[in-house]
């Protein structure tokens, strides 16, 4: 396999942050020697997440075995996952905002033998459903664990407890028509064909769409990590 120098569009502060976490973990578990330093391991993990390189490609580039590359990436991802906010944390933050925006996205995956639960009829592809909450400026507050792509957005929101949590905290939420009937504090556009809506309903829907469109910034932020554009699983 050919190896060549390349770059990763991630800031040095992110690399330093992850390196520090990995160094602390090694100290905690008493790991005295590794094939890669904490800095190199952090770079390996970030290259996998940001660029989506396979373990074989990373192993060749860093001069380690494929299994070692897998272990190093998994260790780094587990550390980052432990730092992720819970839904309760996100709701506490959301309670200080005027409102939040809720939407779902599909993370495409490889087709597998038992693929029916993972096929999204809306997107016409196989994937995993992820629910996203943002603040009024489109900044990511929380991303849910994944569910099979066949799960509808409103069902996913209920299974994760998002609707009940928002209602209990009294946080207003803007969402699209996929969440129609969610109840609580979730606000959706007026239902019906455009030519059957009144002038007032059309104005409400236009205003609603302008607010809800801000969540696309958070979706774009997620998809800059190219691994999420096509999961090999």
Shape: elongated
Give the SSE order as H and E letters: HHHHHEEEEEHHEEHH
Number of domains: 2
Helix content: 40-55%
List the total number of helices: 9
Gyration radius over CA:
21 Å
User: What does the largest sheet look like?
Assistant: 7 strands, mixed
**Average pLDDT number:** 91
What structural category do the secondary elements indicate? alpha/beta
Number of strands: 7
Distance between the termini: 23 Å
Low-confidence stretches: none
Question: How would you describe this structure in keywords?
Answer:
233 residues, 7 strands, seven-stranded mixed β-sheet, alpha/beta
Would you mind describing this structure in some detail?
Strands 1, 2, 3, 4, 5, 6 and 7 form a 7-stranded mixed β-sheet that branches. A hairpin with a 5-residue loop joins strand 3 (125-134) and strand 4 (140-143). The chain has 2 domains: 12-83; 87-229. It has 9 helices and 7 strands. With 233 residues, it is α/β, with parallel strands linked by helices. The longest helix is centred in the N-terminal third of the chain and has 18 residues, at 12-29.
What is the structure about, briefly put?
The protein is of the alpha/beta class. Helix content is 45%, strand content 13%.
Secondary-structure blueprint:
Layout: H1 12-29, H2 38-51, H3 55-62, H4 66-83, H5 87-94, E1 100-108, E2 119-120, E3 125-134, E4 140-143, E5 147-148, H6 153-159, H7 162-169, E6 173-174, E7 186-187, H8 199-212, H9 215-223
Parallel strand pairs: 1-6, 6-7
Antiparallel strand pairs: 1-3, 2-3, 3-4, 3-5
Helix pairs in contact: 1-2, 2-4, 3-4, 5-7
């Amino acid at each position: 396999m050919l190896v060549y120098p390349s770059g990763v569009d991630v800031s040095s502060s992110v690399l330093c942050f992850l390196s520090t976490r990995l160094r602390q973990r090694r100290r905690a578990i008493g790991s005295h020697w590794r094939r890669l330093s904490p800095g190199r391991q952090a770079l390996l993990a970030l290259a996998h997440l940001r660029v989506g390189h396979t373990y074989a490609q990373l192993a060749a580039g860093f001069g380690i075995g494929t299994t070692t590359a897998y272990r190093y990436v998994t260790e780094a991802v587990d550390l980052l996952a432990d730092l992720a906010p819970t839904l309760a944390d996100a709701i506490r933050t959301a309670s200080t905002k005027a409102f939040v925006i809720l939407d779902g996205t599909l993370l495409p995956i490889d087709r597998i033998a038992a693929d029916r639960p993972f096929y999204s009829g809306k997107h016409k592809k196989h994937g995993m459903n992820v629910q996203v909450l943002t603040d009024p400026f489109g900044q990511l507050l929380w991303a849910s664990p994944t569910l099979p792509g066949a799960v509808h957005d409103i069902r996913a929101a209920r299974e994760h407890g998002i609707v009940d949590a928002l209602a209990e905290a009294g946080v207003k939420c803007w969402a699209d028509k996929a969440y129609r009937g969610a109840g609580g504090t979730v606000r959706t556009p007026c239902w019906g064909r455009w030519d059957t809506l009144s002038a007032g309903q059309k104005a409400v829907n236009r205003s609603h769409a302008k607010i809800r469109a801000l969540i696309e910034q958070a979706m774009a932020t997620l998809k800059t990590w190219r691994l999420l554009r096509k999961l090999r699983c």
